[in-house]
Amino acid sequence: MREDGGVIQGELFGDPSGASAARERSEPAPGAVLLPGWLDDDAQLSLVAACREWARGPAGLHSVRMPTGGMMSVRMVSLGWHWFPYGYRRVADDGAPVKPFPSELGLLARRAVADAYGPGIADIAGAASYEPDIAIVNHYPHGAKMGLHQDRDERTDAPVVSLSLGDTCVFRLGNTETRTRPWTDLELRSGDLLVFGGPTRLAYHGVVRTLPGTADPALGLVGRLNITVRQSGLAAE
Ligand SMILES: O=C(O)CCC(=O)C(=O)O
Ligand SMILES: [Fe+2]
Predict the structure, then answer these.
(1) N or C: which end of the chain has fewer CB within 10 A?
(2) Which GO terms of the molecular function aspect are on file (predicted)?
(3) Is residue 237 in some structural domain?
(4) Residue 15: inside a domain, yes or no?
(5) Does residue 7 fall inside a structural domain?
(6) What is the residue with the minimal CA distance to atom 6 of ligand 1?
């Protein structure tokens, strides 16, 4: 507890490095905002519990085969619209209807966008009128990663909201032109919020590695979860 009674992110769950208290808001690229420890411990716990529910079949957590034939090392579950390489549809791979997009997640993501951009929200395409309708939950078992890609299956330029839970990862935020440098490597820890919109909305990005065992045991999670919340721009039906 701080002297004023507030709980510093990381203390409840124990943070031997003490580093989290010093981590501050940053803007790694124009339109990209990182808010470390944005989710408090309770919010993290309830999101992990929610992910467990969303992971249940039908239309639950599944592996994804890429058109090249390989399997992605993450497993995922989509809400609102089912993502496949490369597009969205209403039916999951097992033929079941995709789970609905939870309205609480929409509220959380709108708050995330407002907190990330503050008064500058009006300058970021689709931020002030953010109406997300998709969440993609990725589970990274130890050793999983995600190659550099653009999130370009949506039909809007509204920002992507990314929430991280569990193991820390190295997230590579690249440029909009190529999969090569320049890029910035960011450490995303449990509770961190990253919003990428505006000029960085179509930047290449990926997860270079996770750091196994860095998740606090209190979270009851093996590996890493990432939730991205997006606006599809697709017609409701
Ligand atoms: O796991 C992450 O932090 C990124 C996930 C991602 O890029 C995606 O789902 O498109
Ligand atoms: Fe992505």
Answers:
(1) C
(2) broad specificity oxidative DNA demethylase activity; ferrous iron binding; oxidative RNA demethylase activity
(3) no
(4) no
(5) no
(6) 206
For ligand 1, the distance from its centroid to the CA atom of residue 129, given in whole angstroms, is 23
In a domain, 48, yes or no: yes
Banded model confidence at residue 225, pLDDT cuts 50, 70, 90 = very high
At position 166, the amino acid (one-letter code) is G
Which residue out of 72, 139, 162 has the highest number of ligand 1 atoms within 8 Å of its CB and is therefore the one to mutate?
162
Domain with residue 193: its CATH number is 2.60.120.590
* DSSP for 126-174, written as a single string: TTTT----EEEEEEE-TT--EEEE----SSS-PPEEEEEEES-EEEEE-
| Single-letter amino acid code for the residue at 65 | R
Stretch 131-140: mean pLDDT: 98
Per the structure, the count of domains in the chain is 1
Quickly state the pLDDT bin for 6 (edges 50, 70, 90): very low
153 is in an annotated binding site: no
151 pocket-lining for ligand 1 (C-beta < 6 Å): yes
Task: Output the pLDDT for position 9.
Answer: 42
How many other CB atoms sit within 10 Å of the CB of residue 53?
Answer: 11
Residue 114 has pLDDT above 70, yes or no: yes
Prediction pTM value: 0.92
Where is average pLDDT lowest: 4-13, 23-32, 112-121? 4-13
Cα–Cα–Cα angle for 145, 146, 150, rounded to 5 degrees: 165
ipTM exceeds 0.95: yes
What are the φ and ψ backbone dihedral angles of 18, each rounded to 5 degrees? 70, 5
- How many alpha carbons lie under 13 Å from residue 54 in its C-beta half-sphere? 27
Q: Is 149 annotated as a binding residue?
A: yes
Q: Considering every ligand atom shown, identify the ligand nearest to the alpha carbon of residue 229 and give its number.
A: 1
Largest CA distance in the chain: 56
